């Protein structure tokens, strides 16, 4: 009740400092607008960097091994894969590439005339054992069985051949809303495919869009060819993945000396590199957020300490007339709360305006309302923290000041 | 008079040290943040080749079919193989270079030397003179070498260091994609940023990729026994894979082409030659569209390709938002400060100082805060840029403060605080002397 009664005189006092108050409210509002949007961007980036691709990332490593035509070679792709599988610690090996690494993206059609693409999907293709090397979780239907896979050497691209494929749950729901996808036929630019299984997740890229998870997987049996490209291994122990990968690379080089190896990385390394620049941007924005908070705190406490100095006599008079230290302290705290509240209300408006601008220029998503609430709470706390020093100094003004002239 | 005002300003600032320090610190933080981002932006949008950028042009023609759904009005960035060869042979420009890039398996010409993939640029003889590439050893190959599909190679300094320990390797041989190449030259430090001649570089880094490790004659490279990719290839048609691996496919663009044109007259005549060429191809039935040509200068090309990363532009906007907030902060503090001096100002006015004099006095005080804030902001910007350089992004290495940005920082700080000081100073100069003196 006491607190409540104080509001009236505080507002009256603020009215005589209109300009400074308006400027402070404006500063807090702008801070809130920038802060809300920046936190939104940074948090979105961090969240995105934790989204899983759906494969057994901690166990997968890749060796890019390129054939050089003209160099003498006895190696075969089947031999290469066998050599990889024989490395201690390797449970599976396949020819093919992992997510986040130049995955082909093609339109998908439901009609063989290929007139109307339904969506864009990522196509993972590779040798037998690709799905097991990736460690996909099949939630419906079945994994590839060796007898149904097409053999690369005998692959006749006849018009009615249908590749058995796995597709993601998200793609199945997009292509056949409400229906059962198993056994259905779909088309990409080149071939027809029959769905044999559904996997929970497999993301070709992690951009934050829902179609990241639109993926299809197909396998073919490799044999006596000598193919170059990505060779993936899956290690049983994630902790030993780097050593196992190096051993596998050496084994592959030995099995196929005419190959030249270029890239060698584990999935965790690939992921770190994939998000490097986004996280770097996030860190820079975080620095800007800190600067902003410091500047606003400086502004609040600067103006408050100024007002305390200016009002020393009045404070002394109030003390002399019976106001306690607590009353004085609370006066400045309530004053600050009122100013920040004004700033926060205006700031919510600014934040939405800035968000609209950023959405328009930089394809940012819509700012959810809870960010505004969090921003408001943060600014209230910051304001109280910033005003505490000056308010304590005000509370320490002795009543005797009232009797002195300026 | 200015000296006196300065003295007054310093006295006034000294009287309330904490508040003055807060104002300066706020300005310094705002200046530090905005100069950091401005420097990054300035370096990224800088001129990669200042001495040559005025005479380098990027010709484009439009070989796409007439009805291509969703096609942009702009012609493709690259050329098809056929257009690249035709324009290369056009012979109007004093110099021209056709080019692309990939990775090639390379080893020393010794029996047990291990293979490694190396980045290379395939181009034609004029490349080196056009782009002012310095040579440490040897020289570029000749136009004759281009015509003869000679197996010659120019190495970067770094690759020469790696393969030959930095010695003069001219005349030595390398095995590249199973063919034997003779080294004819080694270039010095040369790495224009942005990587303007190939902003979609297929190697890591895009427009801020490093220069390649070696240079091969374009037509020799095209006849290598194996497909190692042909740079950023784009094809059109129903089947997105059609021709994706045939560099000579007529529906695929990938070759990059640059010309040197020294005078405005040459530029005009080259532009009409491009139109004429399109017209002729149209009549032959190869081009379905009316002549749609571009001849952008180097800087226009970088502008058109938006090589500055969008996040950097966004951060620059945000940094200026921070500066604005810092300025509002300063205005607020100055209003309070000058208002507090009302009594003093009243006395000064009563003793004969004009409103203008008071205004100038206050403005000098604001300026002092600004200069101090700016000076304090410079080390902050330096720290900020150091932090940017620690970031693992391709453009980070170029984030350095140069003299022009240093001047810009000080000027920005001064203008910002003077701007912030104008209104408080004007209010202070409007103080009615009688009212203030009475209350004393």
Automatic annotation (TrEMBL), chain A:
Residues annotated as domain ABC3 transporter permease C-terminal: 287-398
Keywords carried by this UniProt record: Cell membrane, Membrane, Transmembrane, Transmembrane helix
An annotated GO cellular component: plasma membrane
Major subcellular location class: membrane
Chain segments annotated as transmembrane: 21-43, 284-308, 337-359, 371-392
Cellular compartment(s): Cell membrane
GO molecular function: transmembrane transporter activity
Recorded topology in the membrane: Multi-pass membrane protein
Record PANTHER family: ABC TRANSPORTER PERMEASE YTRF, MEMBRANE COMPONENT OF TRANSPORTER-RELATED
Protein family: Belongs to the ABC-4 integral membrane protein family.
Protein name in UniProt: Putative ABC transport system permease protein
Upper taxonomic lineage: Bacteria, Pseudomonadati, Pseudomonadota, Gammaproteobacteria, Lysobacterales
TrEMBL record, chain B:
Predominant place of localization: membrane
Alphabetical list of PANTHER family matching this protein: ABC-TYPE MACROLIDE FAMILY EXPORT SYSTEM PERMEASE COMPONENT 2, MEMBRANE COMPONENT OF TRANSPORTER-RELATED
Gene Ontology cellular-component terms listed: plasma membrane
UniProt entry keywords in alphabetical sequence: Cell membrane, Membrane, Transmembrane, Transmembrane helix
Ranges that cross the membrane: 21-41, 317-336, 357-383, 403-426
Protein known as: FtsX-like permease family protein
Subcellular location: Cell membrane
